[in-house]
Design a protein that fits this description.
single chain; alpha+beta; 3 helices
């Protein structure tokens, strides 16, 4: 009976460690996808309507980002990578929220008239 209890404890501890490793790998993958989202928000092009980019660090792909301008906002899709895991985050941000958060700036009419001169 003691032998079965010992084997059960060893198997249970192995499962807990495997679950912890899985959760940490998934968390890191989500963090990489978030990095892609933040990169896209900070690099919204003024004239282009679409932007695709891969974020690479130390010869490792950690995020792939797609940004497209939509009516009244932008759509961002970021896929984070870590080991063999991938997580994709898709979001839409309105122009009002982008202006409010400082990601894009609106041109005032006085700036437009000065640029034309």
């Amino acid at each position: 009976m003691k032998m079965y209890l010992f084997v059960f404890i060893i198997v249970l501890s192995g499962l807990v460690k495997a679950q912890t490793d899985l959760e940490s790998d998934i968390d890191m993958t989500i963090q990489n996808a978030k990095k892609g989202i933040y990169w896209a928000l900070n690099n919204i092009p003024e004239k282009k309507s679409k932007l695709d980019n891969d974020l690479i660090d130390e010869d490792k792909l950690f995020a792939s980002v797609k940004l497209s301008k939509e009516i009244n906002g932008v759509k961002i899709e970021a896929t984070g990578f870590n080991n063999s895991y991938t997580v994709t985050i898709k979001l839409f941000r309105s122009n009002e929220s982008l202006i409010k958060d400082g990601f894009i700036k609106i041109k005032e009419k006085s700036e437009n008239s000065e640029e034309g001169k």
